[in-house]
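# step 3/5: fold
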Amino acid sequence: MINGTSLALPENLIPGDAAPLWLNKGDHAWQLTAATMVGLQSVPGLVILYGSIVKKKWAVNSAFMALYAFAAVLLCWVLWAHNMAFGKKLLPIMGNPSTALAIKLLQRNGSTYIPLADYVYFQFVFAAITVILLAGSLLGRMNFYAWMFFVPMWLTCCYTIGAFSIWGGGFLDKPDGISIIDYAGGFVIHLSSGVAGFTAAFWVGPRHSRDRQHSPPNNIIHMLGGAGFLWLGWTGFNGGSPFAVGRTASLGILNTHICTASSLLVWLCLDMIFYQKSSVIGAVQGMITGLVCITPGAGLVESWAAALMGVLSGSVPWYTMMVLHRRYAFFQKVDDTLAVFHTHAVAGLLGGLLSGVFAKPSLLEMMYGRNKYNPGLLYSILDHRPGDGLRQLGYQLIGALFITAWNVVFTSLICILISRIVNLRMAEDDLEIGDDAAHGEEAYAVWGDGERMPTTSPWRLQATPRIPFLCRRII
């Protein structure tokens, strides 16, 4: 009241507060936090991981591919891609392309209300990390200008299709028909990025022969730092997917870390048994496969099942990478730089199928409501209704086949189209040089590495072996 006059407030606002009555501030704050944690997985997480796990001459190019993709996806996402993935239905596999910049209420799961901006932001960081994971197959030889074309084209033609089909009300998201269990992206994110990365690697071609035969990380400690961002950031990845601070979120977070730790330790043990050495890079690979495998069922399975999924995610991708990959000429022909096919496609497929086995009916109901999904095969057998579980497992296979086929075909078409505009692959002479040829920059300015001492400096005449080491470095 001012000067005896009562001021009318909008009916949905609390006096003295800008928050509408329907908004749960705890859920809202967690959603923004979770989305930011997922963003940190990409920038700086995968930027550091990629820049450190490759040879020194590719550090800048590899890190920059991730940074560029993060920025490009954001603009494409808000301008047209978000509504292609989650907007009004245009086709059974696609929403209507339109901007997602309006400020309005979004209701999720029948009871949880969040601002649309929260949802757009959260789904953007999922889309961004998918493209960046795909880049791991192409490090060390892809023309950066081709990558600049590839990112928006693949986001538009591949990622949005999978997201709408499985999450956005498409033909694989029908309560009265086929419904794919994919809690946080085992199929939409990881299977698609692994298959698309492997396909694009086929079209781009292999790295320079010397780079492929001998490619040690340039900084293993930094690589572990990037991996740490990835692991801890997955708390937001799976913890934010229910869009509420509740039991499903907390269970999803706990299961994520149980599965990841189990997978890492199993991979490490297999390396020690068969190669007599504990590989740091192997441990990181095991960590990643655990994170990927639990993603499609993190909040939908019990913790004992998460541990079992970790054992399988630490052993099955290990076998495909360390044994099958070396036996078959096709795998040898395609140069998948960071083995994204094994760590994401194989682990994502494994997690999606295991979710169809271990998804608990009460947890499915808690997350999605009644009757949207059939129970996991294990629980349907215990309930003497194995047909329901087999049906859901069949749906999981259908979803995996669709994501795989779509990404193989359309990633190939994208690469062929781009190759008509610019070269997919850097020139052979540039492959010898690396970052300096691609960007005119190098990762580390180390004394004696491309630098020359000024010949006119008066200090040069005074430099003798007797000058202390630090002084000589300054000179």
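# step 4/5: annotate
Confidence is low (pLDDT under 50) at residues 1-16, 456-475.
# step 5/5: archive (pending)
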